[in-house]
Each structure stands twice: as C-alpha cells, then as structure tokens.
Amino acid sequence: MIRIESCGRTDVGLQRVNNEDAFVSSPEPGLLALADGMGGAASGEVASGIFADTVRELLSGGPPPDEEEAGELVRRTFLVANQRIRELADREPGHKGMGCTGEIVVFTGEGYVVGHVGDSRVYLFRGGRLRQVTKDHSFVQEQVDRGVLTPEQARVHAYRHMLLQAVGIHDTLAVDLISGKAYPGDLFLLCSDGLSDLVEDSRIEETLASDLSLEEKADRLVRDACGAGGHDNVTVVLGLVLQAE
User: Fold this and answer.
1) Which of 34, 98, 112, 170 is deepest in the core (most CB within 10 A)?
2) Residue ranges of the domains in the chain?
3) 0.85 surpassed by pTM
4) Between β-strands 21-26 and 31-38, what pairing exists: parallel, antiparallel or unpaired?
5) Cα separations (Å) of 24 from 50, 52, 98, 206, 239?
6) Which CATH number fits domain 2-244: 3.20.180.20, 1.25.40.10, 3.60.40.10, 1.10.10.10?
C-alpha cells in the first residue's frame, strides 16, 4: 500500500485579476490533480472548477487496486469532465470556448498513474534528480519534437501557449496515461505553466532537494514564480511518497 503526504498552493500572480487554476490535494485516497482554465471573462475558472469537482467525485473513493483499473478511472474522469464543460458551454453562450488543462496523479497498490491533457505538467523528483513525466500538448512542443525549435526557444516563443489538446474544447479527447512504480521518497510536482514558464527546472530541482517542509517548498516555488514576473496564475501541488509496499 502507498501512503503519501501532500499539499497545494495557488496564487493569482502579479498581473491577473482572477485565478483560473484549481487543484486537488487528497492524501488519504492518494489523489492529486490540477487544472488551468482558459476562456473569456470568468469561464476559465468555471472549466477548471468543473474538472476539479469531477476528480473529487469520481476518484476520491480510495486507491484503485491495480494499474489497469486506475488508468480506466482516470481516463473516464477526463471524459466526464470534458462532457460536463461542453454541456455547460452549450447551455450558457457566455461560456462558449471555455476549457482547461488537466493533470491527475492516482496512486495504486504499488505504483502511480498519471493522466495528462494540455501544457500543465507533472514532474517526478527521485534520487536527487527532477524529471518531467508529461509532454506538453502544445504547438511549440510539437516544433521541438520536429527539431524546428530548441527547448530554450520554445520557452519564449510567441505561440508557446497555443494548445493542441484541452479539456472541454472538442467532443473527443485523447488522454495521455503514464504509469510506473513508486518508491519511498518520490516527490511528485504538478504545476500550471505559471511556474514552468518562469522558473527553470534547475531552480525547481534545487527547491525540491532542500530540507524545507513540503508546505515550505510549495510556498517557495510560488514565490519564485511571482518574483520572476508573476504574469500568470501559479499553482503547485506536491505529493511525497512516505510508504510503498
């Protein structure tokens, strides 16, 4: 059985007037999630709120017994959230075009399953090294994969926020599912692009490697993003594996 400690922090940043991010930090069922909303007026926060509520509704019943079942539950959660966002947008024209990114980490009997859509990210800090688990569903990431852009160019590209996948935008949705074994000491980071756009991976790694408490690490990451300009909402969720048997 896997036992975790978790926490989450979110901040509106220095240039936005509302926070369109939402997160879930539920250590008892071993559940972490994050969404970054998009859309006019307050629609982005409506979409991310629907995603977070759907995660709590469908995944808070305790850890799935195995990887296969966890994967199916995570995929179904994305599809239900996608349908709910689209149905609300159809009923209320003011919400037309709203959507969100989505990240979910569920812990099973001996491992983890990640569900991913968009350009928010999941990282894994293990053995003193930070590794990006997810790959951005974005135009610039596609250009990096093709060798057209370098990762450094992608970070500052004018179209870096152009998404190729998002929850609530289309009737169909392809969800990336990534799974693996979990070990004591593994530290998972879920973050919106308000962090990853502004704080280098090396700085994130340095913070996660520090002797700070989990809450202090989350606070420092948010402060670093705001200190680097804070042009977007910034949200981080941390999940530390305490026990894995």
Assistant:
1) 34
2) 2-244
3) yes
4) antiparallel
5) 12, 6, 20, 24, 11
6) 3.60.40.10
